[in-house]
Please model this.
Amino acid sequence: MSLIEIHSKDDFYNLLNGEYELLVAYFTATWCGPCKNIYPYVVNIAENNTHIKMLKIDVDECEELSSIYEIDSMPTFKFFKNKKEVNSFSGANSDKLINTIKLLLNDNSLQKENNMGNGMGNGMGNGMGNGMGNGMGKGNEMGNGMGNGMGNEMGNEMGNGMGNGMGNEMGNGMGNEMGNGMGNGMGKGNEMGNEMGNNMERNISGFSGFSEFSTF
Model:
């Protein structure tokens, strides 16, 4: 997407109310020296990041709009998300411009990552809980069945005693094994979550185009 020049208040509000991930309003003037210095960075960002709307607003041409946003020095950058102003600064500071954009895009990705992490945690918890409940149910059935069978063959009193003892031992063994399996599963879940977070941080919001700034 190329840098969009604004010629009226209506032009600006039509774009502000449209679709975008981040909108940056660049207030400038033809006679402003620092504005000319940072202009190539503004163009580079606009051309290399289609999810960002970069608007160029001449304060002399758009006096009403400049008055609404109280622009008293140039260049001034104002940042908008969801039709609301979320940040602003004045001055031809290219590093601050880049870092502010990254920070605002990073907010979106962190929210998405948190939502995915919550969903993953809930899904794993439910799955492991159901599996554990089913496993314990099968353990009870096996203990009861063995106790009853041995009681019939060797006598009710001995069968009951051995059945109870073996049932307890089997229940404890199965509980330990399932607990270890559950711990291992949760450990793997943490590893997956950490890896997902690292991958998302490395690829945040598709933000690109800054490697060429060294040529300016």
About this structure: Residues 94-154 form the longest helix (61 residues). The mean pLDDT is 72.
